[in-house]
Design a protein that fits this description.
InterPro entries: RNA_pol_III_Rpc5 (IPR006886), RPC5_C (IPR045576). Helices cover 41% and strands 14% of the residues. The protein contains 24 helices and 20 strands.
Length: 661
Amino acid sequence: MFLILQYPVRPSTMTYGDVNHLAAKIKPKQQRLELEVAINTTSPNYCRSKGEQIALNVDGTSYDETNTYSAKMMDKQTFSSIQATTNTSRYAAAVFRKGELHVTPLTGILQMRPSFSYLDKADNKTREREAANEGGDSSQDETEEEAKAITVRFARPESEQARQRRIQSYEFLQKKQAEEPWIHLKYHSAKDGRSDHEKQYLFCQSVDASQNCELVKTPKEYLDMLMPPLTEEKLATPVGPSNVLSMAQLRTLPLGEQVKTLMKNVKVMPFANLMGLLASGIDQTSVLRCIQQVALLVQGNWVVKSDVLYPKNTCSAHSGVPAEVLCRGRDFVIWRFTQERSVMRKEITSIIKLPPEDVKEFLEHIAAPRVNRGWEFLLPTDMDFIKKHPDITHRQHMLWLGIQSKLEKVFNFSKEDFVPKNAPQQEPVHISGDQRLKMAQERVTENKVSLQRDLDAKRAGSSVQINQEPSRAGEPMDTSSSSVPNGSVNGYPSATSPSFDHANGGSPSNTLSPELQDFVTQTFRKHVVITLSELKRLFNLHLASMPTRQSIFCSISDHMLQDAVLLCQCKQIMVPFPAQSKAAPDEQKVFGLWETGDSFDQHRRLLYGVFSKNYRVRRATIQAKLTQELGDVSKAEIDRLLHECCSSHAGMWYLKGTIQS
């Protein structure tokens, strides 16, 4: 082992060559070296009283073999090493002798710095003395310790993810370092005969003349051969607006990356501020398109999406919780701020069941603590943006309705659980007898007109669907989302809207609009297998993406959606879910693409047949069924089939959307 020692806190003119080295030890695998050298206590620069005080603090007044300073004064110091670099392949020690250059590669480069471990020992002594004094001054009588209940727990098998986190933890690394034993060494000065003997190993002992060749390279080429450029030194340019990235560098990125980088670092921002940070002349429409990909609208401000902060296959830096769980919890926190200005941290923690450190991080991103008010949203509501962009505001509202329905299912709550107790109640409307009579007369007139309109439409060979009962004349109509069960806004049915109820009626299958059939066809071409619940959610998002008040769809029921599915070359797969399944009825209705015109249709039908006998199967069962019916089936075909139609969990395969948590 060939190591070079550096002393960065010591001038090069003051070497340790003539200093008495008392001890040396090394851990070869870790390249950790400790040297113990004597201090000249007779030097005029040595403060004897200070040295005695340090020894007294470290060892106390009693004499013991384990004392650090046996002379009752600080007469030695310890140097501990750290690695100057982990890669020494470019470094070597060279000796020139008799016209020959002898090069020896280095094992490591260590920087020796003073160790202050004796201060830790002094602190421990102080704490022990204080504890002894407190115990001696106590006037309470000693009592027998009460019996304490002991909980015995059996450790569960460690998962691979947990094992990786444990291996990378600080405690594990400290334990591994402590496991390697110290090897004690004997120090020889540079003038010692043993040192001269070791120096001879720096020279090449056997030189084969037949291998010598004339150097035909130029000096520059020869240096390039000796020291080629390292690829690891070509560091990637940071991609975030931090203290090492200027705004000029940020603006060299594509617009989408600029917006994502800014939102990832700032977390919450008004749209006007975002436009101010971007280069002048950028189209506002393009920025709006990009911001909706990486952020959600909360009180007129944009908050970065959870999956941008916590990408897939990552985990929490605080607790090791997987990114998927973190995203669900943070989405709940953001959703709460869409309902009111302030939230209580204890209430959030009790619902999402995440460690306090993670919950605090969620809140610190978008809120600030207030006395007796919990955590308040950082920014005031941006009414200007809401008024200027009603279409985007509406689209984001529909998106939040879809997120809310998922959160309600995961965390088992309803929106009514969070209605503030001091919320203003709507004042009752007092209507006189004359007004009631007039309202009844107007209602009769409206019903006659509506009935006549239906009769005219039927005579013309068309069908008109009555979406809801006409509002009573004279009564105020509440068009807010809270007034409609499960939130139907601006005529667009949400994923949980009554528009999807079987009892809601709907048009017969022969009057389904081509636009609805086109949506269903495109959806099944992309997803192949889909549950009714997921189809509703995708349809809801499709409605939200359309311009406000320009939807070609009216009220859509379950019956209409299922008719559209059956008319688009799809069929329902009768999956036998277990009796104790907690899946909702819509989640148990599974539809699959049946006919596309290609040869792979037969593979899908056989797969659907397998799942009509069991809701979960093994890959070997699917492969055996295909082989029995179709002969030799390649691995690529089976992989494609499973990728299109199924999801895997715990070694079993399920149709998409049917895995039960």
